[in-house]
């Protein structure tokens, strides 16, 4: 079946099988491999993207359910020459170890900062509760999100 959706601001039309997952569409059909597959069951958050302004696990969404949707993936943040403040802060604060969870962490963090630019540690823990990291112990991730919020507030950098 044919579906059309907007991915990182670009309109895309695709022919998909009804059972295709949004995660497969993003990675295999569009070649946007920043979005990762961990558990494939909605438990790890590695596949997190923003769909119609909501954080979703793309392994649990079927491609036909995304017909007409607006999707943002990690590739839609920042750019090659200018990283998004979250990307910059995750690097600077040492919050990236193996990196597998990080695209999902950053998409959840972006949504959190869209809604609350002054998050407490508890707010961040709640906002990232669907994202599992096996490496960092989370402390540096929380520091990175707070640092990005500070950059956005004080440096006039944008959370887009
Ligand atoms: Fe989707 Fe783990 S791969 S939540
Ligand atoms: Fe390795 Fe999070 S940095 S899983």
- Assigned CATH superfamily of the largest domain: Beta-grasp domain
Tally of helical segments: 5
Percent range for β-strand residues = 5-15%
Number of strands: 5
What's the number of structural domains? 2
Profile the largest sheet. 5 strands, mixed
According to CATH, the fold-level topology of the largest domain is Ubiquitin-like (UB roll)
What's the order of the H and E elements? EEHEEEHHHH
Characterize the overall form. Answer: globular
In round numbers, the mean pLDDT is 96
Could you characterize the architecture of this molecule?
The chain is α+β, with helices and mostly antiparallel strands and 160 residues long. It has helices at residues 22-29, 85-92, 102-115, 121-127, 139-155, and strands at residues 2-7, 10-15, 48-51, 54-57, 70-72. It folds into two domains: 2-76, Ubiquitin-like (UB roll), CATH 3.10.20; 85-153, DNA polymerase, domain 1, CATH 1.10.150.120. α2 (85-92) crosses α5. Bound molecules: FE2/S2 (inorganic) cluster (2 copies). One FE2/S2 (inorganic) cluster (FES) binds at residues 37-40, 42-47, 57, 59.
């Amino acid at each position: 079946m044919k579906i059309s959706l907007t991915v990182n601001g670009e309109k895309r039309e695709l022919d998909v099988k009804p059972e295709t997952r949004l995660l497969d569409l993003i990675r295999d059909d569009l070649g946007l491999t920043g979005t990762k597959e961990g558990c494939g069951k909605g438990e790890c958050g590695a596949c997190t993207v923003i769909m119609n302004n909501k954080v979703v696990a793309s392994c649990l969404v079927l491609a036909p359910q995304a017909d007409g949707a607006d999707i943002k993936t990690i590739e839609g943040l920042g750019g090659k020459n200018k990283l998004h403040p979250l990307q910059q802060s995750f690097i600077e604060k040492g919050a990236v170890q193996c990196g597998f969870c990080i695209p999902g962490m950053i998409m959840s963090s972006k949504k959190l900062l869209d809604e609350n630019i002054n998050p407490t540690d508890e707010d961040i823990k709640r906002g990232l509760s669907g994202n599992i990291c096996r490496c960092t112990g989370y402390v540096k991730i929380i520091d990175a999100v707070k640092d990005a919020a500070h950059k956005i507030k004080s440096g006039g950098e944008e959370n887009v």
